[in-house]
């Protein structure tokens, strides 16, 4: 049996031991080598050493299982308490506008009813305001103002918001080549106007 054990290696361990804990213990190379040495020359000292290592292994496995269960149940309890709290104390903006909707209509949350002021301001107005903050040179500002709206928008997105040509093309629903060409034309016109 001992020779079969060493010829087959770990396969014999799999068939010899049915207990998954013993299999897991012997899957570690150090423990397997100790067991192999004990099978070749049994001694009380080796048996004691294997027993001590198994006790350490067992304590480690139990600790891991214990902490895993604690983490799992603590997370479930935390999630349950968080949901209960959120249900009990709804944020003011997430609550519905109760009295102001008719039967059959879906109640809007207060958050959905907040007006986006930036949406009502046109791009050109916002661009002028933004560019005034970023461009100090009056000739450069005047040159950029002479560009068409698309060119201004592309330069704004590229150099103020630092967006790549590919992302600008997706945002404006045009090809990346069109963005690149428009940007280069705009820059050439700005250079020409500044140098004039």
What does this structure look like?
The structure is a single chain. The protein is mostly helical and 196 residues long. The chain folds into 2 domains: 2-85; 121-195, Winged helix-like DNA-binding domain superfamily/Winged helix DNA-binding domain (Arc Repressor Mutant, subunit A), CATH 1.10.10.10. Helices cover 73% and strands 0% of the residues. The chain is built from 11 helices and no strands. It has helices at 2-8, 10-16, 20-27, 29-40, 44-88, 117-120, 123-134, 138-145, 149-160, 165-172, 176-195. α10 packs across α11 (176-195). Mean pLDDT is 77; it is low at 1-12.
Query: How many beta-strand runs?
Result: 0
**Number of helices, where a helix is a run of at least 4 consecutive DSSP H or I residues:** 11
- Rounded to the nearest angstrom, the distance between the terminal CA atoms is 98 Å
Q: Profile the largest sheet.
A: none
Rg computed from alpha carbons, rounded to a whole number of angstroms: 36 Å
Structural class: mainly alpha
Order of helices and strands: HHHHHHHHHHH
Shape: elongated
In which range does the helix fraction lie? over 70%
Overall average pLDDT: 77
Which percent range describes the beta-strand content?
A: under 5%
Task: Fill in the keyword field for this structure.
196 residues, Arc Repressor Mutant, subunit A, 2 domains, mainly alpha
Please describe the topology of this protein:
Blueprint: H1 2-8, H2 10-16, H3 20-27, H4 29-40, H5 44-88, H6 117-120, H7 123-134, H8 138-145, H9 149-160, H10 165-172, H11 176-195
